[in-house]
TrEMBL record:
Protein name: Acetoin utilization protein AcuC
Biased composition, class Basic and acidic residues, residue ranges: 370-382
Domain of life: Bacteria
InterPro entries according to UniProt: AcuC (IPR003085), HDACs (IPR000286), His_deacetylse_dom (IPR023801), His_deacetylse_dom_sf (IPR037138), Ureohydrolase_dom_sf (IPR023696)
Keyword Transport on entry: no
Limits of the Histone deacetylase domain: 52-348
SUPFAM superfamilies, per the entry: Arginase/deacetylase (SSF52768)
Matches recorded under CDD domains: HDAC_AcuC_like (cd09994)
Pathway: Ketone degradation; acetoin degradation
Protein family (similarity comment): Belongs to the histone deacetylase family.
Pfam families reported for this sequence: Hist_deacetyl (PF00850)
Entry keyword annotation includes DNA-binding: no
Length: 422
């Protein structure tokens, strides 16, 4: 079983016992029925340069589609333009020497490969510090608004920088805004926060920050580290000695499709979250699990990705009185996948879910065709998907089922669950 939550700093040093003094979470009745969308053209400044997969056009095309679909006009939607985070905010997650190194890289072009700055994945660029700090603050502030009851849900599609570590950049990620959102919820009074990551890559940075903190459950459903960066996130990784059972890792075999992805999600995520009973959920919705993504080997369609968003949303209402912060993440099929996948995330957050047969607006399609010289998709969905729920039985000859059962065997007993029962 996970120990009784006793707050402590993620750096492995003891912190004061705040449980008795933590502010009570606002009730559902006290919270406004509103949603927050973090966005500003300034967020396009996170730009590693021509040819880098993390192209800012991913964000531009997504928000252009979001606007064309009228999602920002839904009742109660608040659009927030974030400022860059202060150093004191950044240092809630990152080492001060690392923050200083990023600032030096940003202002002077100083590389620091030992801290991941100036590598092929994370080349330095002018304005890097402010650009990354703006993304960080967007998610940090969104989490604060959700916990305070100012909004019910929040989304930052520019966020989800889940690889950044306390003292180093990694995997296109400079500052870890996902960890910042979790930290904000804890600092504002939450005693249990669940982090759900469905990016094709393991959410290693967030897991490492909270590895020894029983107040945080990190759940990552990703392509196995045996075949994909960052080479971590195995079923046996279940949390540190003071938080056993607080890390849940589902390592998917290469070429897992949408039906397999949803079967794995169904077999692990709802049960783990229900056992943990979070007061708030932060989720990362990297869409690089798609078959068209150039950096991964999974075959998950936009429709399956959308269903995962719906499931997280439903769990937030079931378990956390609707407190939910959704983030973007990886995704490098810039035209065919990312705009649709993340427009679906925004649609779910603002309670305007989109049918997969919804036609893409003609104006948006013209913008893409004229700007990129490509024929864009015609509707929101791509591959209708059904899946066999885990409750219908386990196939020992199936690679996916063996991977899922490995996770359940390792972590379910630590959560007080039977790995062989629903």
């Amino acid at each position: 079983m996970i120990p009784v939550p006793v707050p402590f700093d993620a750096r492995d040093t003891a912190a004061p016992d705040l449980v008795g003094d933590a502010a009570a979470a606002p009730s559902a009745d006290e919270r406004a029925d509103r949603s927050l969308v973090v966005w500003s053209p300034e967020l396009l400044g996170y730009d590693f340069g021509p040819g880098h997969p993390m192209a800012p056009s991913r964000l531009h095309l997504t928000m252009s589609l979001v606007r064309s679909l009228g999602l920002l006009d839904a009742p109660g939607v608040e659009l927030v333009d974030p400022d860059p985070a202060s150093d004191s905010e950044l240092e809630l997650v990152h080492d001060e020497r690392y923050v200083a190194a990023v600032r030096s890289a940003s202002e002077k072009g100083t590389t620091d490969p030992l801290r991941g700055l100036g590598t092929e994945d994370d080349p330095v660029f002018p304005g890097m510090h402010d650009a990354a700090a703006r993304i960080f603050h967007g998610s940090y502030a969104a989490a604060g608004a959700v916990w305070a009851g100012e909004v019910e849900h929040a989304v930052n599609i520019a966020g989800g920088m889940h690889h950044a570590r306390r003292d180093a950049a990694s995997g296109f990620c400079i500052y870890n805004d996902a960890a910042a959102a979790v930290r904000r919820l804890l600092d504002d009074g939450a005693t249990r926060v669940a982090y759900v990551d469905v990016d094709a890559h393991h959410g290693d940075g967030v897991e490492s920050v909270f590895w020894n903190d029983p107040r945080v459950l990190t759940v990552s459903v990703h392509q196995s580290g045996h075949s994909l960066f960052p080479g971590t996130g195995f079923p046996t990784d279940t949390g540190g000695p003071r938080a056993e059972g607080s890390a849940v890792n589902v390592a998917l075999p290469r070429h897992t499709d949408g039906a397999g992805f949803l079967r794995a999600f169904d077999a692990v995520v709802p049960a783990a979250l229900r056992a943990f009973a979070p007061e708030a959920i932060v989720s990362q919705h990297g869409c690089d699990s798609h078959a068209q993504d150039p950096l991964t080997d999974l075959h998950v369609g936009v429709d399956a990705q959308r269903i995962a968003v719906e499931r997280v949303h439903a769990l937030a209402h079931e378990l956390s009185e609707g407190r939910w912060v959704a983030l973007g993440g990886g995704g490098y099929a810039v035209i065919d996948v990312v705009p649709r996948a993340w427009a679906n995330v925004v649609a779910e957050v603002v309670h305007r879910p989109l049918d997969p047969d919804t036609p893409l607006p003609a104006a948006w399609r013209r913008e893409v065709a004229e700007g990129a010289g490509e024929d864009p998709p015609r509707r929101m969905g791509d591959h209708p998907v059904t899946f066999r729920p885990w409750s219908q039985g386990y196939d020992p000859a199936d690679d996916l089922d063996r991977s899922v059962l490995a996770t359940r065997r390792e972590v379910f007993p630590l959560l007080g669950l039977d790995p062989y029962l629903d």
